[in-house]
Design goal:
single chain; 124 residues; mainly alpha; 4 helices; membrane; transmembrane helix; transmembrane
C-alpha cells in the first residue's frame, strides 16, 4: 500500500503542476475571474493533499485499517473534489456546464474532511 500511496502522491503532484500552469496560461484567456479562482482552488487542494499523501506514504506502515482508510479518503476525496472542479470550470467556459459534477465536489470535500479527522484520531 505504501508504494501505491506514494505513486498517487507523485501523480497528483505532477498533475497539480501541469493543471496549475494550464490554468495560469491557457485557461486564463477563456475563463472568467471567478472560474479561474475556482480552478486554482482545485489545484491548491490537489497539491496540499499530494503532499499529505507523500508524508503518510512514508510514515504509515498500513498495517492498521485506520491508516488505509485515511489514505483512501485523501485519494478519493482529492480526485472527486479537484477533478470535479476542473470539469465544472472547463465545461462552463465551453458553454455546456456539466451540472452532474456539482454534487460531486462537496462529496470529495467531505471525504477530505473525514480523512483529516481520521488522521487526528490516529494520533490518539
Amino acid at each position: 500500500m505504501e508504494k501505491y500511496v506514494l505513486l498517487i502522491a507523485a501523480l497528483y503532484g505532477a498533475l497539480g503542476i501541469i493543471f496549475g500552469a494550464f490554468g495560469a496560461h491557457a485557461l486564463k484567456k477563456i475563463l472568467s475571474d471567478d472560474l479561474l479562482k475556482s480552478f486554482e482552488t482545485g489545484v491548491k487542494y490537489q497539491m496540499y493533499h499530494a503532499i499529505v499523501l507523500l508524508v503518510i506514504g512514508f510514515q504509515f506502515s498500513f498495517t492498521e485499517s485506520l491508516e488505509t482508510a485515511i489514505a483512501w479518503c485523501f485519494i478519493a476525496g482529492t480526485f472527486l473534489f479537484s477533478f470535479s472542479i476542473y470539469g465544472l470550470c472547463i465545461s462552463s467556459a465551453k458553454g455546456k456546464k456539466l451540472r452532474f459534477l456539482g454534487p460531486i465536489t462537496p462529496l470529495g470535500g467531505l471525504l477530505l474532511v473525514i480523512g483529516w479527522i481520521l488522521l487526528g484520531v490516529s494520533f490518539l
